[in-house]
Amino acid sequence: MLNSPRSSQNLTPPTGPLPRHIAIIMDGNGRWARRRSLPRLMGHREGVTAVREAVTTCAELKLDALTLYAFSTENWGRPPREINGLMRLLRNYLVREVDEMVENDIRLVAMGRLDQLPSTVRKALERAMAMTENCRGMRLNLALSYSGRSELTDAMRRLAAEVRRGHLQPEEITEELITRHLYIDDLPEPDLVIRTSGEERISNFMIWQIAYAELCFLDIPWPDFRKEHLFRAIRDFQQRDRRFGVIPQQVRERVG
Ligand code: FPP
Hints:
By secondary structure, this protein is an alpha/beta fold.
């Protein structure tokens, strides 16, 4: 686990090979608020500031993709007040940030059971995705009403339907085919997963895609996340010895 950086923390962007895709489990909003005797929603509101900084910094670094775990299928079990507040924050973010996304050449995509979102959020999402669809810079992927198991379940259902129609034989189901049936089939797999809040678990997040990702746990709550934390996680990632279960020469061939 990486501890909070001191004020002398290096704000210089990391040099050297960068992860192509970073995925973030944004955790600790509620605890951030509780420590300040504020309602939980204030933690989520502060979390949006951290989202903006993460998106801008990753786009400046020219990553291929940034995925943010913004709302899990399990989060539907929270009190209606908190869910409504989170949905409002999401909608407002999409409405307010879309022009800047276009300016920064960021293409917005989303994954999850999006039909479960309130229509106000779905409309804002569809509009933002349409407005940024020709952007060719970083892809910003929001995981909304998402869980890794529901993604795999939905993929299996689609595959089973193809088998039933006679369009697919069970022995033709390969890892590549399963990957192509996930919510988004053309994102590079995350190289680095960051989780804030000090918890060290994956919580049903991209469980298929992160088989070989490096994991970085930060002991700060999400609302405190700033570019120095991102740089620190990337520097930590750069120290890792990624072997993908093979030997060094084969790794070079695999990652190019
Ligand atoms: C987890 O913290 C965080 C969430 C469930 C929501 C994350 C949402 C945002 C950061 C804001 C909206 C998002 C975007 C993309 C604009 P928690 O509430 O579980 O914290 P706790 O574990 O301390 O209670």
